[in-house]
Amino acid sequence: MPRSPPQTKGRGSFPGRRWLIVVLRALHLAAVIALGALLLGAPAAPGWSHGTVSGLVVATGLAMLALDVIADRRHLRTVAGLTVVAKLLLVAGLGLAPAPWLFWALVALSAVVSHAPASFRHAELF
C-alpha cells in the first residue's frame, strides 16, 4: 500500500505539539468551567479562590497563545490573537473582582470569535 508523503513541518512545529495543545485546551476548559462555577456560587475546592482559578485560566491561555505566536508571529495582529489577549486580561480581572456578567460576556465573545468565519478570525488588524 502506498504511503502518504511526509507532512512538511512548519515554523514552531515539534514532535508532540498537537497533543500539547490538546492537553492545554482540556486544562483550559476545565479551569474556565471551575471559574464559572465559583462565580455562580458553587463551593470551591479547599484553597481555591477566584484568583487561583483565574490564574489557571490565564496560564493555560497564555501557553496556547505562545504556541500560536511561535507558529506564526502575525497571530497577535489578527482578530483571533488580539481577542485572546483581551480575554486573558479580562479573566485576570475576574480574579481580582469577580463578576458573573463579565464571565458570561467572555464566554459569548469566545464563542462568537472562535466560530466566526476564518476570513474574520484571521484578518490582520494592523
Termini Cα gap: 48 Å
Structure class: mainly alpha
The low-pLDDT segments are 3-8
Number of helices: 5
Reading the helices and strands in chain order gives HHHHH
The total strand number stands at 0
Mean pLDDT: 89
Structure characterization notes:
This protein has one domain (about 15-120). It has helices at about 15-40, 50-70, 80-95, 100-115, 120. The longest helix is centred in the N-terminal third of the chain and has 23 residues, at about 15-40. The protein has five helices and no strands. Helix 1 (about 15-40) runs antiparallel to helix 2 and helix 2 (about 50-70) runs antiparallel to helix 3. Helix content is about 65%, strand content about 0%. The protein is mainly alpha-helical.
Index terms:
disordered N terminus; 5 helices; 0% strand; 126 residues; single chain; globular; mainly alpha
Brief rundown of the structure:
The protein has 126 residues and is mainly alpha-helical. It has helices spanning 17-39, 50-71, 79-96, 100-115, 118-121. It is globular and about 45 Å long.
Topology diagram in text:
Blueprint: H1 17-39, H2 50-71, H3 79-96, H4 100-115, H5 118-121
Helix pairs in contact: 1-2, 2-3, 3-4
